[in-house]
Amino acid sequence: MNVNQQPHMASPYGQPQPGYQRYPQPGYQRYPQPGYQRYPQPGYGGGHVPSGYPAQYAPDNGPGSGYQQGPPQGMREPPTSGTPPVSGAQSYSQFGQGETQNGPPPMVAPPQGTLVSQPHTPNAVSLSGPTQPPYGQQFGSPPIGMQQMTNQMASMQVGSTAPSPAGPGYAPPSTAQAPISAAYTPSAPPTFPPTSSAPSQPPPTEAVAQPPPLPYYGAPPPAQQPFPNAVSTFSSAGPTQPQAPPSVSQQSFPQAPAVSQPPFSTAPPPGPSQSYGGPLPPTQPSFQRAPLPTSQPGVFPGGPPPTSTHSQLPGPMPPQPPVSQPSPYYSEPPPTTASFPPQVGAPPRPPLAGMQGPPMASQGPLMASHGPPGASQEPPLQLQGPPMGSQGPTMAQVNHVPPSQPGMPPGPINASLSGPPPQPGMQGYPPQQNGAFGQVRGPQPGYAAPPYSGQPNYGAPPAAPAPAPAAPKRLDPDSIPSPIQVIEDDKANKGSQPFTTGVRGQAPPLVTTRFQVKDQGNASPRYIRCTAYNMPCNSDMAKQSQVPLAAVIKPLATLPPDESPPYLVDHGESGPIRCNRCKAYMCPFMQFIEGGRRFQCGFCSCVTEVPPHYFQHLDHTGKRVDCYERPELSMGSYEFMATVDYCKNNKFPQPPAFIFLIDVSYNAVKNGMVGMVCQELKTLMDYLPRENPDVESNVRVGFVTYNKVLHFYNVKASLAQPQMLVVSDVADMFVPLLDGFLVNVSESRVVIESLLDQIPEMFADTRETETVFGPVIQAGLEALKAADCAGKLFIFHSSLPIAEAPGKLKNREDKKLVGTDKEKSLFQPQVSFYNTLAKDCVAQGCCVDLFLFPNQYVDVATLGVVPTSTGGSIYKYTYFQASSDQERFLNDLRRDVQKQMGFDAVMRVRTSTGIRATDFFGSFYMSNTTDVELAGLDCDKTVTVEFRHDDKLSEETGALMQCAVLYTSCSGQRRLRVHNMAVNCCSQLADLYRNCETDTIINFFVKYAYRSVLSSPTKNVRDSLVNQCAQILACYRKNCASPSSAGQLILPECMKLLPVYLNCVLKSDVLQPGADVSLDDRAYLRQLVSAMDVAESHVFFYPRLLPLQKLDAESTSLPLAVRDSEERLSRGGVYLLENGLNIFIWVGVNAQQELLQNIFGTPAFSQIDPSMTSLPALDNPFSKRLKEIIESIRAQRSRYMKLMVVKQEDKLELIFKHFLVEDKSNNGGASYVDFLCHMHKEIRQLLS
């Protein structure tokens, strides 16, 4: 059914059209059932709606009567009337249908009703309906008419029922008593019904009435009409007809109460966290649910928007990129009041009134985030169904997507999944319909929701349509954890004072917080970030928790101007002092004994004699009296001058060389790349890297051009003109000259400039289209070998190397393999030639940076082998056009040439007894199990290291790690950079969960997953990510949170954003590509992310979205960011989105003329040129401030971000919406709300 098929624009954003409110039509029940997530319809799942909005965001408007839209492709629509036919399962979304159903939940799972065990408490947020028997439950009384349901729904309250001023559909949160939905009291961790529990059917959405969807752009919400879709799936069906449970997402998690009330309690769980919703009722096999009134949003009060349907994942839910969202549930520390403050800019949403669906699903997951365990918590919200004996399945069940049944059309996997999981702020939102978070409209009168086809028991004929429910309350997305809230809280709490590293095991501020570091014995978080700052004492605890123990190390990170670089220590010819046994370098962890004559190693406990020249007396505390005068005894990071013993062949290295190898085939000349590179290199010769800005660079340079043959150039200073030497025997590459190829720039400047002027002219009329690639790298490698130095090759290449030569490739692009078991072959190199070549390059210290300018498939997976094995970088400019891409390419090239880097590097990580480094991720080569070899290591590259236990650790000594990198500086000096880190150890799981860093955990998960696609199908990779995340959260719930109902989703405070961020990873282009994502782009992103640091991976997976209409030109601060959801965009606003690779300026159709004049120099929306790549320089404070902001954002990232202007309703908007990661994606990725529900279900399954 197209729930939202109609173009969004058809009705005001998100407002139901009259008569076409998304009520389920008769026979056509739009259930937003849990399992019935909206099918991605064309336009609906994110497709473009005719109006130009991806449908997925469109408001959910039910089809008019008789007007059914077909389900999105691949989905079956439920029959309009009659029992739903059973349809084959469709892979509707990522989650198996079993998990989410679009229709009524499969029979297997009992519908969810309120748990019997859970009484309906007025204050609790109950997603379940009034105490009347749950409708639609088979065991309960038959569903009543719509009207009644509506009334019931109205009676259930998530929070206070009175509508809030915010707008129709909002009820102000009641302050007096925390609404149940608000029930999350700070003290209790909010519980969300676990999505994961047994597949149950989502509870009917019955109780929740949702407000009409808000207009997408922030316009006032339309009059509330229940969304039929949104409504629980049960809603419109006749009473007799059981309804499918709402989609899991909707159902499963009750939505959190309005923002104002925290749906989840954040209090630290004193004990086990609260349960999600209450005990799950036993599954009742034939439980059928009556349809809830449509007005109810999916079961979750905050049910996920229909969009989520799309998200259903068939089968296990594939990991999706985590979306960061504020957590609705508060995490650990409970908020002081039950309600959460509304998010900035969003009106507080009242708890859903009357939203009580079955306890589980119907409520958004209650998330309880807890503060440190042990804190008292109020009872979390519980999802309860109507308090009746016959209740639908427990939330857990609800949350579960019912297993798909054979013959059933796949519903969204979890319904809840389908719908976005309630977001932190979503609690009070109706399920997202089509991705629009808005109020859910009630069922339309006269429409019965069609039973979900294929659901047994759901096939009963639709009941008479219920009257439209009272205006449903809007579920508040602000009740699920919000990334923006977490980021802002961290800035407020940790951004003002310096972070001192002297205290062992303290977690640093987030990467999004600006702070100053004072090194007092542990490495700065700019160099090392850990996933956990409290490691489990033994391997059993580590296995139980499943929290990865890893460190993301950026050895040569650039520091801000107010922090001093590592001190350089020179011990003369004797070299650095080291432990005799493990060879660890002298550091603050060494203990001096016997009056200072010997020291005991902190890593292996071996005692070593102190050399006479290094002896110093100890003070009364046992410290050396010169401790604070020696960086290696008092600092976490420092460098040693290496002696000749640390050099290859026992001789000091030559300064490195840069060799520029330029493709001069037809494509490269025609698109302007050759002329541009040659022109820019003339300038860059003055900016080669150097350590002292006052001294000339020691780096030598050489030049090669190539197509099917290679042209070497002699640019010796004594020549009047450069000389070209052609090597056409590419099968046996050699360098035709020694003297004159690598030269000093200052001596040969005139000849070099003459050459760079002549190259574009020489090849201007070329007709050669074929290129080689392997011999090009071989040429550079041979030149470095001949000069006996390390160095870097800058290769500018345009096409697939099909000319006869070593490393020749064929076009193997085959989209039909995507999604199959053979898909992994697309990420693997097609020939082994480049792996062997990479090994030779690393041995010589030859790093390769590749600049690609493809117009078609070039097999990045194979061409990228050498760059990613040598510590190099890949830059890709698809369909390169000089006019629009010149700025980005030249800025990338400048930075790449100028940045500080080390050559011929070897890194080793040593650890204290009890743990060891077992796995490494990044752009490097390893010839053994301990040494990470990097031909080049620059200031942007990270190496991620995973640790495992090999013995027990003690809480007294903690765990120590030392990262030592031996490298050649750009001036030719051999150095050792040492970073030390000590973390605490714990014997209680609660301590582990109190001191983790989610951003680093996600960085590790992404790298692990992106490497796994080389050997496993992407679906398996996504499933394993979801499973590990569920195990982490289930372990916390079981062992650290205070007891609570199973309907609550309880998250640890420091991990409350784990689901949203993980969802972003799961639906990233590498793991779940859309049809328009090329294989080259996927291979490029996979290689790019493998060496990203935590700050870059954070913004890449959860982009920053700034509302420019709130920018104060006079202030130095930025406007408060908003969450990545279309629901947060206002038609009257202009927004800036950045993800580390691109900057988008999105312009709403109703943006104020003054704002447009200040930014674009024209007051008319229609006159804005969407092809502009830079904003005009205007003489007004706003324009100047905006340009400053863009430049400062670009300066923070390692790659220059191209600016793109996206007008609302323009074709480019689909690209922009791809980065609104809290919404459902076109490629089938779940919305945040849906995924949260899915996670809850997974957790409940693990706990049961």
From TrEMBL:
It is found in: Cytoplasm, Cytosol; Cytoplasmic vesicle, COPII-coated vesicle membrane; Endoplasmic reticulum membrane. Residues 1-484 are annotated as: Disordered. Its main location: cytoplasm. Residues 576-614 form the Zinc finger Sec23/Sec24-type domain. GO terms for cellular component: COPII vesicle coat; cytosol; endoplasmic reticulum membrane. Residues 902-985 form the Sec23/Sec24 beta-sandwich domain. Residues 200-225, 315-336, 403-412 have a biased composition (Pro residues). The keyword Protein transport applies. Keywords: Cytoplasmic vesicle, Protein transport, Transport. Residues 653-897 form the Sec23/Sec24 trunk domain. Residues 88-102, 114-140, 147-158, 230-240 have a biased composition (Polar residues). Pfam families: Gelsolin, Sec23_BS, Sec23_helical, Sec23_trunk, zf-Sec23_Sec24. Residues 12-42, 159-186, 246-264, 425-435 have a biased composition (Low complexity). GO terms for molecular function: zinc ion binding. Residues 1117-1189 form the Gelsolin-like domain. It is a peripheral membrane protein. One of its GO terms (biological process) is intracellular protein transport. Residues 998-1097 form the Sec23/Sec24 helical domain. PANTHER family: PROTEIN TRANSPORT PROTEIN SEC24C (PTHR13803:SF5), SEC24-RELATED PROTEIN (PTHR13803). Belongs to the SEC23/SEC24 family. SEC24 subfamily. This is Protein transport protein Sec24C. It comes from Danio rerio.
